[in-house]
Design a protein that fits this description.
single chain, mainly alpha, 79% helix
């Protein structure tokens, strides 16, 4: 949290310095541009190997969880269904919110192009989904063919004999952890990089950039708020909890989530709340830990909302085809980023969505500095849905007291 506030302070300082100096100091402008570009490039170079490693690891872990018994299988199916539904919701609701509440300032992000190539005809798009050379796809940032290959590889690994599966699973797990270390090194320089990016944006947009960033927080957090609210119908109709009983049982976990921004730290409160609602020990011992390990209800929806917001900020029109790609990539990449720290998962999960949709990555370097605020709603929505899903599975399994 201290690092998050330091990064936020660097952003504010950079925006103010850029807004008040303008382009009157060419040396400052050039230095900020070079430093900001270096830092963004450092983040971007980790995306492809990190996505491959985390996706393989996430799919293998999810497959292992689903094979652990009927309760685990039902839990995985329920969680994946919710993830897909909320992602589709974000694809529909986020553009509507941006139409109703447009960006305060029309100034785009400096240095980021607002032009993207027109999507190919649908038949050509389908042909391009499978690449004859996956390494060439990685080099050219053609993320969709790479993701399809990685999914096939991950499922193939799950079919191997245990010894060989364990070797490959450990390899990709280790590679993912190594890339997280590299990102940690880059993020250690985040205050300097964000300060430089803030100067660049402040020069281009002035103090209006603060209004844009606040607007971004409100729009993205609104998607998480909708998901949190949707947990209540799940609890009422799926788990058949009494409305006020569920509200009271969820409040302690929500309070921990607000103060810690950690689903894991909220787990004891979630267990206690579930027991108060009559959920049996089998479900609280299996489903809740599984939800914390492989399920973040808000992640794909809010990640897609960030990508949509960036496109809106840059004046990029998103086609139906691009939106469908974004939904698919947001849903899939969530499986690999649930165990990462918030700042790292922000880059690991959202950069692939932007790359697949053809949206520039440059604004992500700034938005990561204010992720602390939407992340509060992410965590509150996650823990609320975790309790609702646990009750729903417990009801279906007959594990209610």
């Amino acid at each position: 949290m201290k690092k998050a506030w330091l990064i936020l302070a660097a952003l504010v300082a950079g925006l103010l310095l850029g807004a008040f100096t303008g382009d009157s100091v060419p040396l400052l402008t050039q230095a900020a541009d070079v430093i900001g570009t270096w830092w963004l490039t450092g983040l971007r170079m980790t995306v492809i190997p990190l996505v491959v490693a985390l996706l393989v690891t996430g799919i293998v872990q999810t497959a292992n969880a689903a094979s652990a018994g009927r309760t685990a299988t039902r839990s995985v199916v329920t969680m994946l269904s919710i993830l897909m539904l909320v992602t589709i919701m974000a694809a529909i609701v986020t553009p509507l919110l941006l139409d109703i509440f447009p960006t305060p300032s029309s100034s785009g992000y400096p240095g980021a192009t607002s032009k993207v190539e027109n999507p190919p005809p649908f038949a050509e798009f389908l042909k391009a989904m499978v690449s004859p050379n996956v390494f060439n796809s990685a080099v050219n940032d053609s993320l969709l063919p790479l993701i399809i290959f990685t999914i096939a590889l991950a499922f193939a690994i799950t079919r191997l004999e245990p010894a060989k599966k364990d070797v490959l699973a450990r390899f990709f797990e280790a590679m993912g952890e190594a890339m997280v270390v590299v990102i940690g090194w880059v993020l250690w320089l985040a205050p300097l990089g964000v300060f430089a990016l803030g100067i660049t944006l402040g020069i281009a947009a002035g103090v209006q950039s603060f209004a844009n960033l606040l607007h971004y927080v409100l729009i993205v957090a609104s998607i998480g708020f909708i998901i949190m609210l949707s947990a209540y119908p799940v609890a009422f109709f799926g788990a058949r909890f009494k409305p006020m009983a569920f509200v009271r049982a969820a409040i302690p976990a929500q309070s921990v989530a607000i103060s810690t921004q950690s689903s894991l730290a909220s787990l004891p409160a979630m267990v206690e709340g579930s027991k108060q609602l009559g959920v049996g020990a089998r479900s609280t011992d299996i489903v809740l830990p599984m939800a914390v390990a492989i399920f973040r209800a808000t992640s794909p929806a809010m990640n897609l909302a960030v990508a949509i917001y960036v496109a809106h900020w840059l004046g990029i029109e998103i086609s139906v085809q691009q939106m469908a790609i974004g939904v698919g990539v947001a849903f899939i990449t969530t499986l690999g980023s649930v165990s990462l720290p918030g700042t790292i998962s922000f880059i690991a999960a959202i950069a692939p969505i932007c790359m697949a949709m053809g949206i520039p990555l440059e604004p992500l370097g700034l938005l990561v500095a204010i992720e602390t605020f939407p992340d509060i709603m992410r965590t509150v929505g996650n823990v609320t849905m975790d309790i609702a899903v646990t009750g729903t599975v417990a009801r279906a399994e007959g594990d209610m007291k």
